[in-house]
Amino acid sequence: MMGSMARAARACMLLACMSLLAARVHASGDALTLSEALQATLARNPELVATEFSLTEARERVTQAGLRPNPEASLELENFAGSGDARDTQSLEITLALSQVIELGGKRQARVQLAEADHDVAAIDKQARQLDALAETTRRFIDAAAAERRRDYARQASSLAREMRDAIARRVQAARSPVAEGSRAAGALIRAEIELAQAESEARAARYLLASSWGEAEPQFGGLAADLFRFDPGESFPSWFARIERNPAVLRFASAARLRGAELRLAEAQARPNLTVSLGVRRFEASGDNALVASAAMPLAFRDRNQGAIAAARARVSQVEAERVAELNRLRASLFAIHQGMETARLRATRLRADALPAARQALDQTLAGYERGRFSFLDLASAQAELLEIERAALEAAADHHRLRTELERLTGEATS
Predict the structure, then answer these.
(1) C-alpha distances in angstroms, 124 versus 8, 51, 246, 250, 418?
(2) Tens-digit pLDDT profile for residues 248-283
(3) CA distance 223 to 148
(4) What is the C-alpha separation between 304 and 179, in angstroms, rounded?
(5) What is the largest CA-CA distance in the chain?
(6) CATH tag, 2-68+103-271+306-413
(7) Assign residue 352 a region: left if phi > 0, alpha if psi is -120 to 50, beta otherwise?
(8) Domain map of the chain by residue range?
(9) CB-neighbour burial class of residue 5 (10 A; exposed 0-12, middle 13-18, buried 19+)
(10) Fewest CB atoms within 10 A around its CB: which of 14, 115, 283, 287?
């Protein structure tokens, strides 16, 4: 069990330097890398800070479980304030005693084991929260990097639209193009400027969302150092699935199995009654003598032998294993679907950049040359420009999808992959 927890802890730390983008980017000036974003998240994410208190609570429950029952002091007065010889305090008997419950059947050890197993569950839950937080930061980093790239595309489109408007305005003044083309070019510039304003707004929002991952009210970084079009070598689905048992959800079942086993042992230990022993001193006022008093008591377990709690604990042990198998099946199906989507997104991004984008650039150059010679209209030119920009955006989204899906794969397998 401790080996599994150690692997999960290493996985969390590896994810802090996960290969998705951190190994591909380098700081440039004040540009933020993914590795820096993940380190900030581990150090200052408000939710992760809160989980530390839950772990501390579980650790203190282990301490409490190991404490022995407190002794009990008792004072008993007999034979006073009555009648005859028992009037006033002439026949008073005073007994001062100390009692101690002696736990039998290994109850304290079973109680400690239960608390330790509960602490293990809390530790696994903390690791799962770390993985989730780091994966969410990675997704936000990818989204912010893609938003910056879309903003750059929008700036290029706005600049091209302005240049085209000015060029067509000169052609209109020279009577080489109809006035309507000048109006269309002006309208195209307005649309491009609107799209640029929206892209800039989305990029700012993505940066703020990323900064919130480590509790910053406003981004304190410049740009983002990321190459979304750089892909790691593809891995087969079996190699991913081989690591699925490192997922905190599966590790949680391993911890839960230990927890349920500890509950069963405690229920079995509680079936054996405790022994209470007492030792005291009794004083006889009538004679002035003192004497020791001793007693022992134990419940008679005729009816209640904790059999119901024991049977329930055994059922929970069996339930954990059944749930673990069901969770593995669910994770395998999810992993396969995500793996297929990741590979498809990478293929789409690669083909768009390698094949479609050069063809679109060539078509734009040819259309521009033909437009200068009067062979194509402004609409043809605008269409060629829009097609080029659309392919660039589609390739960007495919690359971002690939990295988002890879992030989810790494979260499901609980480790970095290179």
Answers:
(1) 8, 11, 11, 10, 23
(2) 766 666 666 666 777 677 777 777 787 888 888 887
(3) 8
(4) 99
(5) 138
(6) 1.20.1600.10
(7) alpha
(8) 2-68+103-271+306-413
(9) middle
(10) 287
Give the separation between CA 254 and CA 158, rounded to whole angstroms. Answer: 57
Q: How many CB atoms lie within 10 A of CB 124?
A: 24
pLDDT digits (tens, 9 = 90+) for 373-382: 778 888 888 8
Structure tokens, 282: 């009794």
At 237, which amino acid appears?
A: F
- 3-state DSSP assignment of residue 106: coil
In tens, the pLDDT along 231-247 reads 887 778 888 877 777 77
Please check whether residue 131 is in contact with residue 411, taking contact to mean a CB–CB distance below 8 angstroms: yes
Q: Map residue 281 onto helix, strand or coil.
A: strand
Running DSSP on this structure, what letter comes out for residue 224? B
Q: What's this model's pTM, rounded to 2 decimal places?
A: 0.72
Are 225 and 27 contacting, i.e. CB atoms less than 8 angstroms apart? yes
HEC profile of 343-356: HHHHHHHHHHHHHH
Helix 2-15 and helix 107-173, axial crossing angle in degrees, nearest 10 = 20
Residue 279, both tokens: 């030792």
Which residues, listed in sequence order, are joined to residue 74 by a DSSP beta bridge?
Answer: 97
Tokens of 334: 């999810």
Burial class (CB in 10 A: 0-12, 13-18, 19+), 274: middle
Residue 165, both tokens:
């408007």
Q: Are 367 and 376 in contact (CB under 8 A)?
A: yes
